[in-house]
Amino acid sequence: MMDIVYDITLNRIGPLCAELLESNGMAIIFDDCAQEELFQICLLHAHQPLLRPVRVADLVSIDEQEYRVTAVGDVANKTLEELGHVTLMFDGAHEPQRPGCIHLGTTHPRFAVGSRIRIRGAEPPESGLKNLV
Fold this sequence. Notes:
The chain is built from 3 helices and 9 strands.
């Protein structure tokens, strides 16, 4: 059984989020107390505690789609813990491109109000995980 590291539900989606995801392969999540100008490009949620740092090989599920964490920037865990803020990069990079990013597989998800984002600790390799992108 994998431990839940972080678990949020989106409650607002900025009008420019889909364009940012399509053009740059990124989705920015932020606590729903974010300034209004940030809302334009963010997926907002009610902040929850980060139970341990996110690590390479952890799993991120966005609704039913699962992604393996391929890289974690130097400040990603700090901003996620303190502000509920991190940039999810859907590029499969194995080296962080920016300090506040968590890199995942290359398939772009669909986000909606009510979408659930969960980060879970990695299972041992012999577990035979399926549907990862």
